[in-house]
């Protein structure tokens, strides 16, 4: 079974907003899913890094995924209005220009 990263993001959102699940429980559940033999991830290392950033830096999963993508590609910078990304010291957040 394929575990798509956007499905993980939606699952995190539902678990947090609808069920009030703690961040640590969500992170552990995702890490467990990735280890199942019957689960296939496109890029498990990227997903696990996003989970780590989500849990330790306490930012939304979407932003954590963006950080993980910037790290793994070597770009090191992201454009975002979300200042919570500034908590992560491995990348630089660039404020997008206003339109």
Automatic annotation (TrEMBL):
Required co-factor(s) are:
Mg(2+)
Molecular functions (GO terms)? hydrolase activity; metal ion binding; nuclease activity
Query: Which superkingdom, per the lineage?
Result: Bacteria
Keywords in UniProt for this one? Hydrolase, Magnesium, Metal-binding, Nuclease, Toxin-antitoxin system
- Name all PIN domain ranges: 6-89
The UniProt entry, under InterPro entries, shows: PIN-like_dom_sf (IPR029060), PIN_dom (IPR002716)
Query: How is this protein named in the record?
Result: PIN domain-containing protein
Q: What is the species of this protein?
A: Mycobacterium heckeshornense
